[in-house]
């Protein structure tokens, strides 16, 4: 259990460990009891509702030790997804660890926009730049079984996570993983659609980020100079794209005007802008002129 707190003699009950865990997380997370219940359920193999329903049951000593370790790490603001090793995205479970960014709900808007471009039965060729956990590439492959997908990343660790997720979802034969730095070693005109959720956080915002993000997620997947560095490189290589080729990117809050200017300078026109559930411009769909 958390440092300095021990259960009473004999096996600890679920309710006792919930109380201790929630107390340790109080002030560190918004819903300490729910998170404590999720972590206790993780070590016991129970859903959250089952943890509450079995509150008077005893907890085996090894599970108590594991739970205490998880509680301490969560109090240190390690993301829940890294503690349990998974995150749901587009209705599916993806493995995650500190080698790759935790998939965000906002990125599902990017997937939706990509699927609209890919179409059904079109046999489209899709390129996912900076795939991370592989959630975008794999989701496109699953939603459009006739599509072929290439996913790139510079990080070998991220590619390992993506490979594991490809095997998990049985698309390792249709999603090809390539280690590449942005557009290097790729013939862009071989693809119908290019999609990317790039690093787009201004390094100057580092101190304002939540500790889960700032202290635990891979910085190379988060920060891009003033937030626009990736887009400068991408749109600066506009001549590598074919006329009419589509490019979809996720962007951060307040970046639409900057991204639009860089895109137009690089020979792209904005076809559509998708807002997220907070009415923030989140996805830009572009077309090479």
Topology, element by element:
Layout: H1 14-25, H2 32-44, H3 48-53, H4 61-75, H5 80-84, E1 86-89, E2 92-95, H6 107-118, E3 125-129, H7 135-143, E4 148-153, H8 156-168, E5 175-179, E6 193-196, H9 211-214, H10 229-236, E7 246-250, H11 256-265, E8 268-275, E9 281-288
Parallel strand pairs: 3-4, 3-6, 4-5, 6-7
Antiparallel strand pairs: 1-2, 7-9, 8-9
Helix pairs in contact: 1-2, 1-4, 2-4, 6-7, 10-11
Number of helices: 11
CATH-level-4 superfamily name of the largest domain: Vaccinia Virus protein VP39
CATH C-level name of the largest domain: Alpha Beta
SSE class: alpha/beta
List segments where confidence is low: pLDDT < 50 over at least 5 consecutive residues.
Answer: 4-9
CATH architecture classification name of the largest domain: 3-Layer(aba) Sandwich
**Strand/helix succession:** HHHHHEEHEHEHEEHHEHEE
Describe the structure.
With 289 residues, this protein is of the alpha/beta class. It has 2 domains: 14-76, Orthogonal Bundle (Helicase, Ruva Protein, domain 3); 99-288, Rossmann fold (3-Layer(aba) Sandwich). 37% of the residues lie in helices and 17% in strands. The chain has 11 helices and 9 strands. The protein has helices spanning 14-25, 32-44, 48-53, 61-75, 80-84, 107-118, 135-143, 156-168, 211-214, 229-236, 256-265; strands at residues 86-89, 92-95, 125-129, 148-153, 175-179, 193-196, 246-250, 268-275, 281-288. The strands form 2 sheets. Strands 5-4-3-6-7-9-8 form a 7-stranded mixed sheet, with helices on both faces. Strands 1-2 form a two-stranded antiparallel sheet. Helix 1 (14-25) packs parallel to helix 4 (61-75) and helix 10 (229-236) runs parallel beside helix 11 (256-265). The longest helix is centred in the first third of the chain and has 15 residues, at 61-75. It is elongated, with a radius of gyration of 22 Å. The N and C termini lie far apart (61 Å). Mean pLDDT is 94; it is low at 4-9.
